[in-house]
Amino acid sequence: MGWGGVVSARSARVVAARRLGKRNFRGKERLFLAEGPQAVREAAGHGDTLVELFATAEAAERYADIVGEAHAVGARVHLADEQVIADISTTVTPQGLVGVCRFLDTSFEEILKARPRLVAVLAHVRDPGNAGTVLRCADAAGADAVVLTDASVDLYNPKAVRASVGSLFHLPVAVGVPVEQAVAGLKDAGVRILAADGAGADDLDDELDRGAMGGPTAWVFGNEAWGLPEETRALADAVVRVPIHGKAESLNLATAAAVCLYASARAQRAAGGCRSVTGSQ
Fold first, then answer.
1. 145-149/238-241 β-pairing
2. Closest by alpha carbon to 155, among 142, 138, 141?
3. Rounded to an integer, what distance in angstroms lies between the CA atom of residue 34 and that of residue 127?
4. How far apart are CA 253 and CA 174, in angstroms?
5. H-type helices in 178-219, by residue range?
6. Alpha-carbon distance 238 to 208, whole Å?
7. DSSP notation for 245-258
8. CA distances (Å), 178 to each of 148, 150, 197, 249, in order?
9. How far apart (Å, rounded) are the C-alpha atoms in residues 81 and 96?
10. Is residue 122 within 8 Å of residue 178, measured between CB atoms?
11. Residues β-bridged to residue 27
């Protein structure tokens, strides 16, 4: 492959890439956009995921290492002016690099075969920014997988991809799984199901104090506005609330997910501690 030359706004490749901003085209082509140096670098380092790269001359020079990685994995690299990049990009201030990537999702069955110990299940999560942020939290907490139910947002929505800040490329994600199937499969695999809900009967601190969170666990997170419906809460082994010690009315979805996932990670790792992002590698 290699260099694809300079492309114009009317180029068939540019038109095809621009269409990936819409869900129906993403689903049809099983391709999505990764925007900015961080996402493109992660895509280039993920097997044959990166198919094409559009770059301004300035970005190609500034991020020569990323362009080199794109060439190395066989992606076709196109030079484009800033207006073309802006036409493809869904961000207000594009950074000069936009990658076209193959879908990454794995099957729910493969996730179960790996005997996961920590899973985030996004049930009825509709906001792409929240979905991507929860995925990032799951990655940071060392989760083994993320499952998006069939009632949740598209994993490849550009806002979700950006909000994951590269974590989309780090851990297995299953999509379109009915919540009943997700819960049943995880239970059969020996995973305890905890539904996160502000009105939960069980307190997260109490769960930790009882030593009840050291085993394989899946957290089910609900809609940003109305939480989890009763029928979904009923599927869980326990409905757990994050305690509010101050005067805040509640926590937003991503913050609550981070607290819950890190609580499980700490309980599972016990005295093993955690890796610091600022520590030596």
1. unpaired
2. 138
3. 18
4. 20
5. 179-188, 204-209
6. 13
7. -SS-S---HHHHHH
8. 9, 5, 19, 31
9. 9
10. no
11. none
Per residue of the chain (281 residues), give pLDDT as tens.
455 567 888 889 999 999 999 999 999 999 999 999 999 999 999 989 999 999 999 999 999 999 999 999 999 999 999 999 999 998 888 899 999 999 999 999 999 999 999 999 999 899 999 999 999 999 999 999 999 999 899 999 999 999 999 999 999 999 999 999 999 999 999 999 999 998 889 999 999 999 889 999 999 999 877 788 999 999 999 999 999 999 888 888 999 999 999 999 999 987 444 544 444 33
Q: Are 235 and 194 in contact (CB under 8 A)?
A: no
**Beta strands of the chain (E only): which ranges?**
2-6, 31-35, 50-55, 76-79, 97-102, 118-122, 145-149, 173-177, 192-196, 202-203, 217-221, 238-241
Helix, strand, or coil (residue 109)? helix
Q: What is the pTM of this model?
A: 0.89
- Residue 108: strand pairing partners: none
CB 99 within 8 Å of CB 53: yes
Eight-class DSSP state of 271: G
Residue in the block written with tokens 């996402």: 39
